[in-house]
Design goal:
mainly alpha, Argininosuccinate lyase, 458 residues, Fumarase C, Chain B, domain 1, two-stranded antiparallel ribbon, cytoplasm, binds arginine, elongated
Length: 458
């Protein structure tokens, strides 16, 4: 029987009851529900809304329930309508009539909102820890490859040389932004405690919202009760943070998939992170990376679904909002799973430095440096650019690289060319001399790694 059943409202049909039920999904809010209920009960006692000793009994029983749940002694009754109903039913089972007082001055509308905020905050903490491990893993990989030259691409065409460390640190940056985004979201979540908003219009009981705000570790209470119970912005924001994060992981996965192909062979995956084919014995498939890439689809989907659920809802609470939780939980679970894989995934990626170097040596990746060489000698860059283009065309016709083309041939194109051109276009020089802050020069990348590691320890 639902907590709201009475003479006025008869029971639901069996099918409607199970359709309406959310306990399978919201059972994971149980500990948050106990925490929110604890703060509410303490407040009811302090304000004399219910006798203080009864409030204390409720509060300590809620703590006991948490302990019993953690030891496995208390099992959630899945026949209840939702987790809030279960908490009240269990409390009443334990305390009799006193237990029934916990819902005084409260609605499931502010209850679910506060639970979801407490839960999201905790999950964000977990996500941040996982992200830190992911960032540290990219930094660790980078440390080992600060002098490993590889092609940098634009339009997936060889563009300018970078190092594998420089590449890894690009992902460290992305994940770092993801981390700060989550920190911002958490800050905003904690800025508005919805508890005390009641169903939509607070209560005629003298609820002390500042007190529950302090007990629950919020920085302030929500200043409009109507908004407090209608608001799911934080959930959309979190789902959006996770979408951006999953986009980053998906790009990383995509590159790994391409680079581990026979065509590139820049990297290979150890057997621990690749699968075989049931028919083609030669295959090593990057399934984990493909899943990393693929799962971003469901994370984006969850975000769109939550936005769509919310978009037409009249204030305040509507049952549609029950749907939103399942979507958010799926994004959180998916991302936690993905992040947990990341450090080992990186560790188990073998880098083929020779292949990376060979690919850098082809494709005129030092063409910009040839043009820069002329520009440094006073030739306007646009002219230097055109001359270098002509040289490349010549090299292609004669089967030269910029390094193997004789000096005399260079001088046919411009008399500013001297023997130091070979030093200027040397792959190592062109990579390691990109010493501008944020560039691929090994000392710059080492500084970046150090900067990032310090940030992680802040
Ligand atoms: N199970 C509900 C949900 O998840 C709890 C809030 C119910 N409130 C209500 N007015 N029916 O949204």
């Amino acid at each position: 029987m639902a907590i709201w059943s009475n003479k006025f409202h008869d029971s639901l049909s069996e099918l409607a009851y199970s359709f309406n039920q959310s306990i399978q999904v919201d059972q994971r809010l149980f500990e948050a529900d106990l925490e929110g209920s604890y703060a509410h009960a303490k407040m009811l006692g302090k304000q004399g809304i219910i006798p203080e000793e009864e409030a204390d009994k409720i509060a300590s029983e809620l703590l006991q329930m948490k302990e019993d749940y953690q030891t496995g002694e208390l099992v959630i009754d899945m026949s209840e309508e939702d987790i809030h109903s279960f908490t009240e039913a269990e409390l009443t089972r334990r305390l009799g009539d006193i237990g029934k007082k916990v819902h005084t001055g409260r609605s499931r509308n502010d209850q679910v909102a506060v639970d979801l905020k407490i839960y999201s905050k905790n999950e964000i903490d977990e996500l941040i820890l996982l992200l830190k491990d992911g960032i540290a893993a990219f930094c660790k990989k980078a440390e080992d490859y600060t002098e490993t030259i590889m092609p940098g691409y634009t339009h997936l065409q060889r563009a300018q040389p970078i190092t594998y460390a420089h590449y890894c640190m690009a992902y460290a940056e992305m994940l770092y932004r993801d981390m700060t985004r989550l920190e911002d979201t958490k800050k905003r979540i904690l800025e508005t405690n919805p508890l005390g908003a009641g169903a939509l219009a607070t209560s005629t009981f003298p609820l002390d919202r500042e007190y529950t705000t302090e007990l629950l570790g919020f920085t302030d209470y929500a200043h409009n009760s109507l908004d407090a119970v209608s608001d799911r912005d934080y959930s959309i924001e979190l789902a959006s943070d996770l979408s951006i994060l999953s986009m980053h992981l998906s790009r990383y996965a995509e590159e790994t998939i391409i680079w581990s192909s026979q065509e590139f062979k820049f990297i290979s995956l150890k057997d621990t992170f690749s699968t075989g084919s049931s028919i083609m014995p030669q295959k090593k498939n990057a399934d984990m990376h493909e899943l990393l890439r693929g799962k971003s689809g469901r994370v984006y989907g969850n975000l769109m679904a939550i936005l769509t659920v919310m978009k037409g809802l009249p204030l305040a609470y509507d049952k549609d909002m029950q749907e939103e939780k399942e979507l958010l939980f799926d994004s959180i679970d998916t991302m936690q799973q993905m992040l947990a894989l990341l450090p080992d995934m990186l560790e188990e990626t073998i880098i083929h430095e020779d292949k990376m170097y060979a690919a850098t040596a082809e494709g005129f990746i030092n063409a910009t440096d040839c043009a820069d060489y002329l520009a440094a000698k006073g030739i306007p860059f646009r002219d230097a650019y055109r001359i270098t283009g002509d040289i490349i065309q010549y090299c292609l016709e004669k089967d030269y690289t910029l390094e193997s083309m004789p000096l005399e041939a260079y001088q046919e194109f411009h008399d500013a060319f001297e023997s130091d051109i070979f030093e200027a276009i040397d792959l190592q020089t062109v990579t390691f001399n990109r010493k501008v802050a944020g560039g691929p020069a090994p000392e710059r990348v080492k500084e970046h790694i150090e900067w990032m590691e310090n940030k992680l320890n802040d």
